[in-house]
Amino acid sequence: MKTKDFEKDRKKRNGVWYVLGSITLAGAMLLIMPKLIEVGSDYLYKKSTPPIKHNEDDWGPEIVKKSTLEE
Fold first, then answer.
1. Any residues with CB less than 8 A from the CB of 28 and at least 6 apart, and which?
2. Rounded to an integer, what distance in angstroms lies between the CA atom of residue 19 and that of residue 25?
3. Can you give the three-state secondary structure of 18-64, one letter per residue?
4. pLDDT digits (tens, 9 = 90+) for 4-36
5. SS3 at position 65
6. Which of 20, 27, 30, 54 suits 65 as a labelling partner, its CA being 20 to 30 A distant?
7. How far, in Å, CA of 51 to CA of 54, rounded?
8. DSSP code of 15?
9. Residue 13 vs residues 19, 21, 30, 32: alpha-carbon distances, Å
């Protein structure tokens, strides 16, 4: 048969473990979540944007001196 002292002691120990577990979980999340969010957002961004294909022949307008245009 369980006594009242045993029940009080058991409840106290359960509460201590609950608090220690909560503190440990919060500390781990403070260390892990920022990196996890960064990696996840980079992954989603790269998957959502289409790849850019560069055309090596088209580099935009070319600056030409006026004297060479008249020749």
1. none
2. 10
3. HHHHHHHHHHHHHHHHHHHHHHHHHHHHHHHCCCCCCCCCCCCCCCC
4. 676 777 777 788 888 999 999 999 999 999 999
5. coil
6. 54
7. 10
8. H
9. 10, 12, 26, 28
